[in-house]
Structure to design on (291 residues):
């Protein structure tokens, strides 16, 4: 069980939205984790790499700021095996590359632009995730 | 220099949003998808809040002639809804449902140095490298990723 946290989650969502607006307003870029990471791994120029690297540095230092301000640790509960983590990482990496985006890029920024591609992608990956969890937890039964 | 301070702060805001929202916690994400079991609807509030704010903000931002610190808005040019988009998104959803991490959830969580997050992230980057290599070998110079 995890606690239902509507207020914290809504505030979190609003912060993600603010980050998306700022990145578009200042840098003209989509706040998508997949695209930012892919461009960091395959830099096209020094300048292009630098904004991605600094943005990723901001993301990675967010837990430290969160702990400092809130005084509570960042909860990372992992209910699945290491094998499932590795398999999931590989499948997600391949999927977001071919699908051209993930939850932040398609689900937030693309949907906000009413991009038909992003709307289709979001509906498809959300549906696939619901089905996967249903199958692993209620059909196969037990954690993977 | 100013722009990199700004992009650092944007990453920080995004990361704190992910943590507050609960998306850096795989157990919470998996419970969102488990309507038939231990359902936790919190993530709908993350998605709703993020989408609502972004949709509203983009309406003003994208009306401007150019971004404040760049020459142009880099908006995706791909329009096709094809097998690659659908297949990739199915795979992403399956992977997300398997362990509860999406790229935007995992990257801020890397800062916790939790071994499972590091494992997932290394595997995810390996997956991106493999997929890019496959795309390049097929001679597909696909347009810039959406996200």
């Amino acid at each position: 069980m995890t606690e239902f946290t509507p207020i914290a989650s809504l505030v979190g969502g609003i912060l993600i939205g603010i980050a998306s607006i700022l990145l578009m307003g200042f840098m003209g870029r989509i706040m998508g984790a997949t695209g930012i990471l892919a461009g960091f791994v395959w830099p096209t120029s020094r300048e292009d790499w630098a904004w991605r690297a600094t943005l990723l540095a901001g993301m990675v230092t967010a837990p430290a700021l969160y702990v400092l301000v809130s005084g509570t640790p960042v909860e990372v509960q992992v209910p699945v095996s290491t094998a499932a983590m590795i398999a999931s990482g590989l499948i997600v990496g391949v999927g977001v590359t071919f699908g051209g985006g993930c939850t932040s890029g398609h689900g937030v920024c693309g949907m906000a632009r009413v991009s038909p591609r992003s709307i289709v992608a979001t509906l498809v990956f959300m549906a696939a995730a619901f089905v996967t969890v249903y199958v692993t937890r209620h059909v196969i039964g037990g954690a993977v | 220099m100013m722009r990199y301070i700004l992009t650092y702060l944007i990453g920080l805001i995004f990361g704190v949003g992910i943590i507050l929202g609960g998306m850096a916690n795989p157990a919470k994400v998996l419970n969102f998808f488990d309507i038939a079991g231990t359902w936790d609807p919190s993530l709908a509030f993350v998605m709703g809040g993020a989408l609502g704010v972004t949709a509203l903000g983009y309406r003003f931002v994208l009306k401007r002639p150019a971004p404040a610190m760049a020459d142009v808005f880099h908006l995706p040019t791909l329009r096709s809804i094809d097998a690659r988009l659908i297949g990739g998104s199915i795979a992403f959803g399956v992977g997300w449902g398997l362990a509860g991490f999406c790229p935007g959830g995992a990257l801020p969580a890397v800062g916790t140095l939790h071994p499972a997050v590091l494992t997932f992230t290394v595997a995810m980057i390996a997956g991106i490298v493999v997929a890019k290599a496959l795309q390049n070998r097929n001679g597909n110079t696909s347009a810039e990723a959406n996200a």
Remarks:
- Residues 16 and 108 of chain B are 8 Å apart (CA to CA).
- The helical segments of chain B are 2-21, 26-33, 42-61, 83-99, 103-109, 115-137.
- Residues 142-147 of chain B have pLDDT under 50 and may be disordered.
